[in-house]
């Protein structure tokens, strides 16, 4: 049974960050979130949980006392997504709920009803060190998380709990709502902090607690295989555990210094390469390699202007030539390219929407349209605009091994890349002397491909350099 | 522990984790067959299995487990038994 349905906005994010104290940029800053595995800002998991508890309490005003609660956050929820609270089971013993987008659960909540346990655990009494509030998340390394402990004051006031989650507050009491909100402050700002992902909360109600306005925590275990951090927490009438993960920091591509000697200093001299999506990832590496080989490069950015400027500055400091250009592959190419001061002889098309966003089922037309707009329409429009000035243009279209491997949840992505391949093949058959080089690239280490489990990735330099040499060899 | 015993206990773990009593594991079962078997739940599966069977997998072993059959073989090998 669907209990509630809503979308979360940027304003909702800011409001929850302000009351919970979790200002992690993954939730608030589109520029920084694009360098995380999420790719875009995501809703605080605890905000979803508290909304779920509130929805349950609204629908069932006479709920028994809560004894235990467990929530597992298995997938991100993005701003603007229609998210539902679905009650799958309600008995005198407990309840189960899914937080879903479409048919797919993004988080699961399990509740047991019953009496609270008597006392808070002894370890919590020994935790005295108060962690001062900071609006900036700590930037711990995985190793630094081991052995961390402390006590954080509730950022959320009882009145905030009553205003934002009135039914849940009436059911559970404000301190428990505040304690759950403090747990996201703990994960997002204190430990692990900046590079964190909240995985699971499991808590039991305490009958008595003399420390209602702070949350004690201590790290009880770390698992380097998954970069996982297990913590015990206690405060506000709850005691239990929090599982979180260190997410992969933004992937750093090879520096200009390290590329010295990898290509000859005149290998690409005389060429002008337009790198669509060159502010990071494979586009960044391509720009650096061509510049190292004496080519002039123009790096485009859609949202990452600062990243693009950094790449350009690094190339110039190394003696190369690099300009930057604002470019959105979903908007008409000709208008945007009119600002170019020289005509590109080569173009590399690394434009992509966020790939990480989970699918809501096997297939979604909107998702396919989103990919097609960039991988097909955008590429076609770009090539058409560039060929007007450079008939012998050489282009690179990066396809993916996922077209053949078809990993789970990548249906629309694989379909759009396959459509791009068909377009390129037909263009090559009809548009000589222009030429498009198409390669199905393997999984390479980028912000978009990072995950909780270390996956095998190919070496980007070994993969890209032969491709670049092929693209630069045209026109022949 | 026999292969059958490992399958029985592993099925319990899968059913509890995915909240689905209809799950029937075969050697060929992969993440593609269970809608919620994603990277996060893969970690939960590994951790729950390690606790249940008293074994510990390396990162390379975790990465290489592509189906339930390989999962069972790894558990059997770690616990000093062959799965047959």
Verbal overview:
The complex is a heterodimer of chains A (476) and B (84). In chain A, the strands form two sheets. Chain A has a ten-stranded antiparallel sheet, with helices on one face. Chain A has a six-stranded parallel sheet with strand order 13-12-11-14-15-16, with helices on both faces. Chain A has two domains: 245 residues, Hotdog Thioesterase (Thiol Ester Dehydrase, Chain A); 217 residues, 3-Layer(aba) Sandwich (Rossmann fold). Chain A contains 17 helices and 16 strands. In chain A, helix 12 links the parallel strand 12 and strand 13. The model of chain A has no long low-confidence stretch (mean pLDDT 93). With 476 residues, chain A is α/β, with parallel strands linked by helices. With 84 residues, chain B is mainly α. Chain B has a single domain, classed as Non-ribosomal Peptide Synthetase Peptidyl Carrier Protein, Chain A (Orthogonal Bundle), CATH 1.10.1200.10. The radius of gyration of chain B is 12 Å and the shape is globular. Chains A and B meet through strand 5 of A and helix 2 and helix 3 of B.
The geometry of chain B reads as globular
- Principal-axes geometry of chain A comes out as elongated
Low-confidence stretches of chain A: none
Give the CATH superfamily of the largest domain in chain A: Hotdog Thioesterase
Estimated share of beta-strand residues of chain B? under 5%
Q: What number of structural domains do the residues of chain A give?
A: 2
Described by strand count, sense and barrel closure, the largest sheet of chain A is: 10 strands, antiparallel
- As a percent range, the share of helical residues of chain A equals 25-40%
- Order of helical and strand elements of chain B: HHHH
Tally of structural domains of chain B: 1
Gyration radius of chain B (Cα, Å) is 12 Å
Estimated structural class of chain B: mainly alpha
Order of strands across the biggest sheet of chain A? 1-3-4-5-2-7-10-9-8-6
> Major beta sheet of chain B, specifics?
none
Q: What is the SS-derived class of chain A?
A: alpha/beta
Report the CATH C-level class of the largest domain in chain A.
Answer: Alpha Beta
């Amino acid at each position: 049974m669907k209990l509630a349905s809503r979308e979360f906005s940027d304003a909702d994010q800011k409001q929850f960050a302000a009351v919970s104290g979790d200002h992690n940029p993954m939730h608030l800053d589109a520029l920084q979130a694009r360098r995380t595995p999420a790719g875009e800002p995501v809703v605080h998991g605890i905000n979803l949980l508290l909304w779920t508890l509130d929805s349950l309490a609204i629908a069932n005003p006479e709920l028994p006392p809560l004894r235990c609660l467990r929530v597992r956050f298995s997938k991100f929820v993005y701003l603007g997504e229609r998210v539902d609270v679905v009650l799958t089971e309600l008995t005198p013993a407990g309840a189960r709920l899914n937080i879903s987008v479409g048919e797919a659960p993004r988080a699961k909540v399990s509740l047991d009803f019953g009496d609270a346990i008597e006392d808070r655990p002894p370890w919590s009494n020994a935790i005295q060190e108060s962690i001062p509030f900071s609006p900036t998340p700590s930037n711990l390394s995985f190793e630094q998380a081991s052995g961390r402990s402390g006590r954080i004051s509730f950022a959320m006031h009882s009145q905030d709990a009553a205003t934002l989650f009135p039914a849940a507050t009436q059911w559970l009491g404000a301190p428990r709502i505040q304690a759950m909100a403090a747990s996201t402050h703990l994960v997002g700002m204190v430990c692990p902090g900046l590079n964190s992902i909240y995985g699971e909360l499991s808590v039991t109600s305490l009958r008595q607690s003399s420390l209602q306005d702070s949350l004690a925590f201590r790290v009880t275990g770390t698992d380097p295989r998954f970069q996982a951090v297990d913590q015990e927490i206690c405060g506000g009438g709850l005691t239990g555990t929090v599982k979180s993960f260190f997410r992969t920091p933004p992937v750093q591509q090879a520096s200009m210094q390290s590329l010295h000697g990898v290509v000859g200093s005149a290998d690409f001299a005389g060429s002008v390469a337009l790198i669509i999506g060159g502010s990071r990832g494979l586009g960044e590496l391509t720009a650096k390699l061509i510049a190292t080989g004496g080519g002039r490069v123009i790096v485009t950015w859609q949202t990452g202007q600062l990243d693009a400027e950094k790449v350009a500055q690094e190339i110039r400091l190394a003696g190369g030539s690099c300009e930057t250009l604002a470019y959105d592959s979903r908007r008409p190419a000709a208008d945007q390219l009119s600002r170019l001061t020289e005509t590109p002889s080569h173009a590399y098309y690394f434009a992509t929407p966020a790939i990480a966003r989970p699918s809501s089922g096997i297939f979604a037309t909107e998702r396919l349209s989103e990919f097609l707009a960039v991988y097909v329409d955008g590429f076609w429009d770009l090539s058409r605009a560039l060929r007007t000035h450079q008939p012998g243009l050489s282009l690179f279209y990066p396809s993916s091994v996922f077209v053949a491997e078809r990993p789970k949840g990548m249906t629309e992505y694989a379909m759009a890349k396959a459509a791009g391949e068909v377009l390129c093949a037909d263009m090559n058959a009809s548009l000589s002397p222009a030429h498009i080089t198409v390669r199905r690239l393997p999984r390479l280490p980028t912000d978009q491909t990072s995950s909780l489990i270390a996956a095998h990735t190919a070496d980007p330099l070994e993969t890209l350099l032969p491709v670049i040499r092929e693209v630069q060899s045209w026109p022949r | 522990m026999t292969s059958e015993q490992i399958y029985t206990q592993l099925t319990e773990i899968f059913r509890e984790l995915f909240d689905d009593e209809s799950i029937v594991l075969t050697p060929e079962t992969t993440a593609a067959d269970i809608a919620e078997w994603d990277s996060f739940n893969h970690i939960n599966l590994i951790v729950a299995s390690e606790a249940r069977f008293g074994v510990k997998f390396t990162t390379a072993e975790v990465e290489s487990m592509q189906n339930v059959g390989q999962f069972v073989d790894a558990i059997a090998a770690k616990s000093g038994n062959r799965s047959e």
